[in-house]
Records
---
Amino acid sequence: MTTRPKGLSHEEKRQMRSAARLYAVQALFQMEAAGQSADKVRREFIDHRFGQEVAGQDLADGDPVLFTRLLDEAVTWQASIDQMTDRALVVKWPIDRIDPTLRALFRAAGAEMLRTETPPKVVINEFVDVARAFFPEGREPRFVNAVLDHMAREARPEAF
């Protein structure tokens, strides 16, 4: 079982949660692209990506508990999350026609919206930041914001 390190500052914990969200999107993308199981991808990320150095740059430590939860919940509730995402998308663009990175992002964000107590506005802001990491020059972050806002209002209407 993975655990969160103790004795970290609030900012360090926030950074670890943000990194876990980014890693969850990458892991979901990898699972779909390579046909790998959640267990295999989870082990790879926790053992070989969290806090490692790649091309001379340190990768952030991710919160292994949040990462595992997002991955597992996205897999378990994928059909429900995809249906919720489809309702937020334009009819001509069902989830199976959008960019696979965005599809993974919507699944991770949907899992957090549906299966955690994290306020929806925090989920939206965090995953818009993830979209910016993958699409720094594009319009995707605004698209992600709009879709996640629609999903959040459906998943947690009491928060609005």
Note: DSSP finds seven helices and two strands in the chain.
---
Amino acid sequence: MSRNALELWVGLFVVAGLAALAMLALRVGNLSTVNVTDAYKVTASFQNVGGLHVKAPVTMAGVKIGRVSNIQIDREDYSAIVELSIDRRFNNLPTDTSAAVLTSGLLGAQYVGLEPGGEDTHLKQGDRIEITQSAVVLEQLIGQMLFSKAQGDR
């Protein structure tokens, strides 16, 4: 094999490796999917959102139906107000739908999971999801376990 052919194969291998790394970075960063353009926005209040971030998926029954579009602090009760952009194809979510901050996969990416209720009325633009469950923070659970263990040893 000539030197030029060997350099060509090495170059192709390096380009393929860089493309694979870029693809992995996009998948891990959750940037590979397009934003929801035709959506309606609803809000939900959480005591703790953990590592939830803007553009995190909103799912129902494991299917992505939207994205987190904004996260801010409520100045009155210091809770996190999360704005969800939900695709208009899913405009039949009952008003008693619940929302939870969940963790997926080994890397611990967080997302909002919706669980539909049974009301006959549906969520509309600007509505608020009242039933929420905050993120489970592993460090707090470990701290509580260690504290209770220390109290039991006394």
Note: The longest helix spans residues 3-28.
---
Amino acid sequence: MPTRQRLSRELAGMPPPLVLAALYAVLILAGALLLLLPISHRVPISWSDALFTSTSAVTVTGLVVLDTGADLTFFGQAVLAFLIQMGGLGLMTFAVLILGALGLPVGITGQIYLRDDLNQNSVNQLSRLVVTILKVVFFCELTGALLLGLTFIPRFGFWRGSWEALFHSISAFNNAGFSTFPDGLVSLATDPVVNLVIPALFIVGGIGYVVLHDIFTKPSWRAWSLHTKIMLTGTAVLIPWSVGMFALLEWHNPGTLAQFDSVLARLTVSWFQGVTTRTAGFNTTDIGAMHDSTSLMFISLMLIGGGPASTAGGIKVTTFVVMIFATVAFFRRQQQLHAFGRSIGLEQVLKVMALTAISVILVFAGVFLLAATHDGHFLDISFEVASAFGTVGLSRGYTSELSEFGRLVIIVIMFLGRVGPLTLGFFLATRTVPRVRYPEGNIYLG
């Protein structure tokens, strides 16, 4: 008992983001051990294969070094689905749900960890938010599985079709991008059910639980928070942009859209591939066959990602929008940043700058390390790193070319892309009061 009390005190003294990062690391290691069990795989796999796959699942990325459907057994695929669910839902959210079901109190420490896991500023309303998360997750994943069954069950039979539908529903809602098919969803590129259900799942999952909570509990646009308004506005701009640009750039490419004869089929593929890029990672066309210009656009979208407190990765849409607002305000020589009748404080702007700067440095370091140790097209390497950081999972076919060191680099980037903002938030929230004030100086910028 004294040992447990001492451990509890030590954990209470640690920064919540660091504890959460440690919990994610433990889950990754446990998942790798489960995947190494003989019952989990049909072909021999190495420790590197298991660790990479487990990290990709927990960080809901979707980069693969194994053929999920062929190399893993049903048990191995079930382990993968569990890791995806845990990584997407959030460890602290899952723990609170379990404690609530058992009638056990969460405690103030647990609430603080939950606050950081959900990227919230306070512990108020967390219980209601968790309930919203629970309802949304199970409703969306169950509904998605039932609808996908309309396509998968006739193809594969009832039992296998039901599992394929459930697995892809979990993977889609959590923005993981894992598929049990060797070519992803290419064979289902024009299937209407897949093109409606899968995007609906990862858009809802990637928009953020806070936004969904506002939509379901508040009656009108005016009652919604500034965060929700910025998130929805940014998403409403990015989706048409990505879909339209993919269609424009790839319309005559025989490796992607030009292989389809009808305009409707090309627009359908453009819709799916345009919306999946920001963080979901599914593909209905050959990513490696895209033009370089399209790949560069995809890199930018993957780095932006989805919404905070969601299953998405990247720097987040709200960060990108606030950065744009701050840039516009600078050129207009405005002293105060505001949007939708609300001001945005300097502290938020500084956080956006810090998060963007750290993200750029991390991606640049990853590209440099892979370029220095691998022979390959620079665009392929950059695409791989951006996909790992944004926890997207799209690849131009370079994942299989990674060395052991390259896999380690991608593992670290996937991990930091998922839990890095938590640690960053802690350091940004640490306030220090200066004891000495210095006279202001001038710096020539730009």
Note: The first helix runs from residue 2 to 13.
---
Amino acid sequence: MMDEQDQNQQLPTSWALTTLGEIQLDTSRSILPSDTPSKMFELYSVPNFVEGKPEIVSGAEIGSNKKTVQVETVLLCGINPRINRVWIVGDFSPHTKIASTEWRQFAKQEGIDPKYLKYFMQTNSFRDFLASNASGVGGSLMRVQNSAFASYPFPVPPLPEQHRIVAKIEQLFSDLDAGVAALENAKQQLKRYRQSVLQSAVTGKLTADWRAAHQHELEPASTLLARIRAERKEKRNDKHKEVSSLNTSELEEPPEGWEWATIGEIAKSMKNGIYKEKEYYDHVGIACLRMYNIDNNGRIVWKDIKRMRLAKSEIEEYLLLPGDILVNRVNSRELVGKAAPIPKGLEDCVYESKNIRLRLWSDSFESGYVSYWFQSKGQAYFSFNAQQVVGMASINQVQLAAMPILIPSPIEQVKIVAEVERRLSVADQIEKTIDASLLQSERLRQSILKKAFSGNLVPQDPTDEPAEKLLERIRANREKQPNGKTKQLPLLNDTPKKKRRNTT
């Protein structure tokens, strides 16, 4: 953090440097809303911040102590991982306004524009400071106390200049927001384009013309499947049980030369991943792919790789080979069943228990094509068939084996993979460009804030009252309120009257 002398050298002469502790004023009092169950409140909870407006709720629905707040109070979240959320209390209703005790309050006072303070608290430097000064036992129990940022330097311009700075920030941010919205819309269009390509690929439309031109060269999928069924019957034993036939009466008519099958019919094996206690994980050993290493676009993502110390026999049992398909069997309902083929050239690795390894019967089946089927049809199938347990959805090998799949000839599978990769590679490049633009937009946003709080965003007006005069009035006002806050009412006992929502 820059010391006071250095900051003073960079600030305009009409500005003054103080600390957040000096301008913080907490005029709240503690309240237990459930003591007035029929009374309505305007509640500023931490979770509801993303909605952009408070909840209007009755006291009976609030199960913990709150703090009263006044209009234009700046609320700074001090709880991990939502540190740096900043909210200005509005006036959405005539009801008493209350806030979670997790907010650090800065009541409005003469000389400080609440929006100026809010934007200051949105700078990366302040966010990083809060994150590095949170204390507690870890995770969501990490909090930032008022004392942690009390001495944090706060540059104060004259009040009219604060208003000009806020107006300029909002003008520039409005333009940035419009650009970001356009970029996000483009990303959504790319997502729809990908789904359109995949849908076209696995229903035969993508290669319809090619198929017609090469019809005489293609082995019908029915011939391929008949051969596989014969091989399976010949090799049947305890490890290769007979696969039940598929009822196609309610399935769409396949393209010419294509055939309906099940995942179980085209699979040589399916195996759940390895489960080990945490002491088996180490910084050395064989890489272990987890549910997070399968992205939503059907690819293996090599990041945050965990490693395990395993016996040679365990590695051999759970080793992933090129052409295997890794299927996520435990996840949220919208993500369960996501899958990715194991590419060539990947470091030797195993896979953890929340995944299933799907190994195809022969090279006649393209793992890339099967993966595209999962991406196009998997979400609907697994969402319908998954079992929900404690917030997570799961699928098993029986459900996976029963999944219907349209099979084209081996040659057409190769053609489909090539055509999809060509189209999606263009989409990937466009998305990278969009992501780079979004990152640049955020950097520009921070650059605007940096200029704003160093006096370089708007010109100074020599007729403005110097900021030091504002600080004198703020200090005088604080002397009237011991410790910078009004006397609080004592906390009341929280005696629950009925089950209430989490209103942190």
Note: The CA atoms of residues 374 and 450 lie 46 Å apart.
